[in-house]
Amino acid sequence: MFPAIFIGLIILGIELIIGIIANGLIIVVNCSEWIRSRKLTGCDMILTSLGISRFFLQWTIFINSILFQLPEDMNKQCAMTKILKVVWIFLNTLNLWFATWLSVFYCVKIANFSQPLFLWLKQRISGLVPQLLMGSFLVSLVTCLPSVNAIGNTTGECQYKSDLSSSLFILSMLGFSSPFIIFIISSILLITSLWRHSKRMEKTTSSSRDTITEAHVRAIKGLISFIVFYISYFVALGIFLLDLFPITSYFVLLWSVIMGAYPSGHSVILILGNPKLKGVAVRALHYARCRLRDAVS
């Protein structure tokens, strides 16, 4: 089992490095713009909040995975494990909400529907972003409060189990399911709108038809990859909370690897799909390549 654990921790470490670089880039670029212009667009607010939450979430996943692999007679890490478990639940809920609002923002801004509610949201979504982010923070905080009581009341030696009661599990999954449902609905609406528009563009004779159609196809592919990451993370999260395997089992490490792939992989997709972030990333890679070449020579 040791080789599997070793390989799993290496993969988690790679995911952590990718996540730190990708989310760090998102945070630095948007914060620099905010310092320079004293304002951020609604999309950049969500991206910055998402990058910050994912930055800390990945560290929490990585540290938890290391603690879980320590021998069971090492009980000194019990207090830290309990604290990290509460932080992990909070960051998970917060991250899912932020990712959901990003999907909703894209859907409202890009999709074309004639329903009055949708048109109302299209005009006001940018102004609602600060309230949505703050509301997500408060909801995530309230959702993790029962876990503070349940985990804090654990007595005796440290047990390498989640020790989640059925009621706490149901409450946690309800907290995770609400943003998940909203995310799925907004993603389906956006993909449907983009697909219909692409089909309409294929029937026109405009010279820009191919370029616009290709852009829509790329957007659809990006959304589908976003959905795959999101769903895999949500499923792995549910299996982890069900506590079906011993906490030292390599299956738990497998779920950790799957969960760690989401905040790093999707952040890379966001950078590649954002011209501003992609430009900074390309310049940074070019600079790093030049420095490496100079160092070697």
Automatic annotation (TrEMBL):
Keywords tagged on the record: G-protein coupled receptor, Membrane, Receptor, Sensory transduction, Taste, Transducer, Transmembrane, Transmembrane helix
Localization of this protein: Membrane
Main subcellular location: membrane
Source superkingdom: Eukaryota
The keyword Transmembrane helix belongs to this UniProt entry's keyword annotation: yes
G-protein coupled receptors family 1 profile domain span: 22-242
GO MF term set: bitter taste receptor activity; G protein-coupled receptor activity
Pfam families: TAS2R
Topology in membrane: Multi-pass membrane protein
Transmembrane spans: 6-31, 43-67, 87-108, 128-148, 168-191, 223-242, 248-273
GO cellular-component term (any): membrane
Membership in a protein family: Belongs to the G-protein coupled receptor T2R family.
Name of this chain's protein: Taste receptor type 2
Organism annotation: Chelydra serpentina
